[in-house]
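Dear Dr. K.,

Following up on our conversation at the group meeting, I've run the structure prediction for Lipid-binding SYLF domain-containing protein from Bizionia myxarmorum. I'm pasting the input sequence below exactly as I used it, so you can double-check it against your construct before we proceed with anything downstream. Let me know if the numbering doesn't match what you have in your notebook.
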Amino acid sequence: MKTLKTMMAACLLFITVGATAQNDHDQKIMKDAENAKAMLMKKDAGFEKFFKNASGYVIFPNVGKGGFIIGGASGNGVVYEKGIAIGMADLKEISVGFQAGGQAITEVIFFETDAALAEFKEGNFEFAAEASAVIADKGASKNANYSKGVVVFAMPKAGLMADASIGGQKFSFSPFKM
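The predicted structure tokens came back this morning:
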């Protein structure tokens, strides 16, 4: 009986530590997302209209990209609905074509309508090869428009990558537990 209690206590401790580690990881991503939002707003005040008027948005503060002929990208982000964090997201990308190097970027996806955000939250959202992101720089938000209810901005952080490839991004969504 004592062994069973010890094993149960060990399992409970393992689950608690695992949940805390995941929570710490999510908290870091949330802090990084808020910092990325502030950086975008500082770079171009026109982003305020997107953050204020979008039904929702997802901020991927640290997306790593790399490749040589075949490439990929991966990142974690925070999903916001009406400006309130509602869950976490995951980004994966695979591409093929002329590409060499590595790069870190911040990516923000704005959803113009509740329907566009709902499609993302279903967890099967992806961008096809023809989708492109607007490079987030001073004045970039001025001429950017939604296409099919979505607009994407990417801000290079570090690294250098030559890229003329075709690929797509796939996303997943995990809502916060209430």
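Two things stood out to me. The first strand starts at residue 56 and ends at 81. DSSP finds three helices and five strands in the chain.

Best regards,
J.T.
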